[in-house]
Amino acid sequence: MEDIIKKTEKYVMHTYHRFPVCFDHGEGYYIYDINGKRYIDFLAGIAVNALGYHVKPVIEAVDEQKEKLFHVSNLYYIKEQAELAELLVKNSCLDKVFFCNSGAEANEAAVKLARVYGGKKRPNIITMEGSFHGRTMTTLAATAQKKYHEGFRPLPPGFVYVPFNDIDAADKAMNGSVCALFIELVQGEGGINVADFNYVKKLKKLCEERGVLFCVDEIQSGMGRTGRLFSYEWYDIEPDIITLAKAFGGGLPLGAMLAKEKVAQCFKPGMHATTFGGSPFCTKVAKAHLDFLLSSNIIDEVSKKGDYFKKGLQKLKRFPVVKDVRGVGLMLGMELDSNSDSLRNFVLRAMDAGFLLGVAGENVIRFEPPLIIDYKSIDELLVFLEKELVKM
Predict the structure, then answer these.
(1) pTM above 0.85, yes or no
(2) Where do the H-state alpha helices sit in 91-196?
């Protein structure tokens, strides 16, 4: 392990505060480090490994496709891509799909499409304070959190920030220069903040009245994470655009931007493109992953497990250090009266005890386990959390 750390520190750019562990393999919701220690994963690669590790249908798709093609250009028709696009459209309210490699690229594509739709007189896009939409320059500008902007100004213009869950602020900002509104219905990196139902309904109505596109970033909340395939389904609305990544690729780098036909038709050949997006290999695996999600009862169980988990976390609010518990499905957060350094130490102690946790926002412990997590493992984590909170 020491040799791996030394090589990483010497040869890899220092863009992460890495934890001192290196993983070797996984099975189900367990992941094992190179020394053989087993951990129960409550982070899932930051909501990527929705079905856990060594998923049979995914492995079978990998084995089948690796003997055929990894990559061909989007200058040609790709069978696997077409089949995945059909599956997405038939299980959403959208009509067309653009494939890419990541969440940031999916959001870049959505920004470009929205601006083409709005025209030169309506270039502005509203985003929410506490949002996170990516690390490219444009998606960084869309991200309404100042801490991510430090060192990178000037950022691309054209984004208007409004408070989350504040309909009056959105109403005021939605003038004739706005082409679209982007929202995470459950903010991930911002601290697991959930959009109010009535707020979203009013927001959607405002957008319809003023000809503004309603765009939902489903990168972290999609693929069953909240107990529905997409989080927008909880709000009885139909977005004009959604973006996908993380769990969408079944563990491989794949993103997508889906749009209604009236919006999608604004993209003409040559206006947007990607070299690797929608490759036969990635789309074959993603379809196998999505097929399994849709054909099983896994998503239906997410709400039950999430409710059970959330109730267990809410009982911990009897400790003064716990300020709040929030989230939907298996996208949950516990806000502590603590700073980032002590949260990192909290995560390290969890690792020592055999649990992988994450941090979101300034002081939120994030819980996003594989959707196949069982009740016994949830109980084990709750016991650990209670012991730690007693110490705190």
Answers:
(1) yes
(2) 103-118, 137-142, 167-173
